[in-house]
Amino acid sequence: MDTPEGPYTLDTDWLIAADGARSGIRTAMGLQMEGASYEGFFVIADIRIDLPYPTERRAYFDPDWNRGNTILMHREPHGIWRVDYQLPPGETPEQALRPESMKQRIDAQLAMIGHAGAEWDMDWCSVYSARTLTLPDYVHGRVIFTGDAAHLLPIFGVRGANTAFQDAQSLAWHLAFVLKGLAGPALLANHSAERVGAAREIIDEAGKSTRFMAPPSRGFRLLRDAVLSLSLTQAFVRPLYHWRTSRPHEYSASVLNSPGDDNALFTAGPAHGAPPQNVRLAPDDFLLDHLGGGFELLYFTEGVALPNALLRVVQATRARGVPLRVTAVGAAAPVAGADLALPDVDGHLRARYGVQASGAAYLLRPDQHVCARWLTLDATRLQAALNTALPP
Hints:
Strand content: 15-25%
Number of strands: 18
Strand order of the largest sheet: 4-5-6-3-7
Radius of gyration: 26 Å
């Protein structure tokens, strides 16, 4: 590694490559991303200015000062507004970032929205192009790629930082369990498969937004313009805007999902690979407030104690070093063997989770995605689900 004091060598058992879009580690290993890069550039500029608009994204298509191109604006914290504007074909990033060019264009945008002559200060600026790329595998021996080093997502998907946080959340528990000897290398392979799948889903969704915001051909532009014009009078067209693609990814095909549970029999509630649904339990009290950072068994019961056979599986799992917490849902009083009891007086939580009777349960992974659910849980089925979720 190079530093101002000179180069030095760092030895490590594992290397997490989180060194960004121009990852030197990815380049040194000769790894190639898969996907597409869209033509055209956007200037992204953060300006300090006071504008009387709400915190929402504003899009302008084919404005007078930037014909055929798109402009985006949205409020950021601390008095900053972000302005993104598309460059005409042939203009280089160096030309676009000249102070006189940026001032002319930002002034033109402010004038168009009724703030001609408004004073503003530049906070930060850059140029980007829309790219939808991912490594096909994030785990290479003991080098694991994450964030922009693993994938490049277009800004129109509004998922770049969100996805990097989810990468880190997933990697943290997968790698920790392998390092502690609680699972084998198959667990890290699962991390890669799940996160590559999430990136590909986002790429597919964000690609639609990218083609809408920056049409790559005359046909796409014709379709985009038709949607814009028709949406003024026709409600059925408006969903085609496809603005927000930010939703939790569901690991429905994960190898950690239990094949022998009752997932297919449920008529409601989060399914295999889905994050838990948050439910309001009382004023300022929600289900997610009570979930921990290990495996979580939500056991629906009106009894006073966990069944002994279930409790033995829980205790044996903990004895191996696996964090497993039991939350009893629906009991009016503490339940022996459970770590926490959550009342469900009106049955709202049970209804949201598709639970009809006592003895039903959900098993959540440390990243709070469902890996098993049962209409009736017994010790054998719980042990099988835990074995599946922690492959050797």
